[in-house]
Specification:
alpha+beta; five-stranded mixed sheet; elongated; Glutaredoxin; 267 residues; 9 helices; disordered N terminus
Length: 267
């Protein structure tokens, strides 16, 4: 009887491993052949500093240097304002976490949203800002601490390359991921927050650590494992096959360890 159970368990483990080995990944990632970086996504550049020659145009039509604006913990947010996909829920997530946070925008930290489409205008940027301010209760504070910018193609390329934000034009739109970068007051990249929504605790900790110049790996690696970016739908989708395969493998491992270490019955 014991041998039958062991044989059955071995077969189950073998089938589980075979199943996992044949599971396709939900996300197809394409890489740049020159440096093995993904064409779409985020390559974390923790502890690196922003270049001093990135120029952006503020809401008053003034051309300013990006690093000159960073005198406090800063959240950088790259989007394009007419985006039909994940940009809107991403900025809604930012508006929500800023509204819920007990920190004061413009005092404890600031958010700089920069369009990576050089054809977009300040009028569009201002309209988008107004839309998101209508979603929050702390309108005046957030209006002071959340600033919108446009820029030229050279500065956009320099800025996005510096933070590892990879995107690709497709027709009139762009394929890109959802992520924000947290910058220390001296211009060092200290944290990446990936996804469309942010936990207030995680957001606050990222700001506090940036203020101290402390960098840390992305907290939501588990979420990144569970969700895959779908370039076609420009959204994050639950990777059911990966999760199911992992659970089957885990159960098979537990069963295997149980059969090995379970106490033997005395005759």
């Amino acid at each position: 009887m014991v041998r039958i159970k062991q044989t059955t368990s071995t077969l189950l483990i073998g089938l589980a491993l075979l199943f996992v080995a044949k599971i396709p990944f939900a996300q197809k990632v394409t890489f740049d052949s020159t440096n093995n970086d993904p064409e779409i996504g985020v390559v974390e550049h923790l502890d690196e500093y922003l270049p001093k020659d990135i120029y952006i145009v503020n809401e008053d039509s003034q051309r300013v240097v990006l690093t000159d604006l960073i005198d406090k913990p800063t959240v950088l947010n790259f989007v394009y304002f007419r985006c039909p996909g994940i940009c809107s829920p991403l900025m809604e997530g930012l508006a929500e976490v800023m509204d819920k946070s007990d920190m004061t925008p413009g005092v404890d930290y600031q958010v700089l949203t920069i369009s990576f489409d050089p054809t977009e205008t300040l009028d569009l940027a201002k309209r988008k800002k107004t839309n998101y301010l209508n979603l929050v209760n702390k309108k005046e504070e957030i209006a002071r601490g959340w600033k919108f910018f446009i820029s030229d193609s050279a500065s956009i390329a320099k800025a996005t390359n510096a933070v590892g934000f990879k995107y690709k034009r497709q027709g009139n739109d762009f394929l890109h991921a959802a992520s924000v970068m947290v910058i220390s007051p001296d211009g060092k990249i200290t944290r990446y927050l990936n996804g469309l929504y942010f936990l207030p605790f995680e957001f606050k900790m990222a700001i506090i650590e940036a203020n101290k110049g402390q960098s840390g790996p992305t907290i939501n690696k588990v979420l990144q494992f569970c969700y895959s970016y779908d370039p076609t739908g420009q959204t994050y989708v639950l990777n059911v096959t990966k999760i199911t395969g992992t659970l089957i493998l885990f159960i098979a491992l537990i069963l295997f360890l149980y059969l090995i270490f379970k106490p033997k019955k005395k005759k």
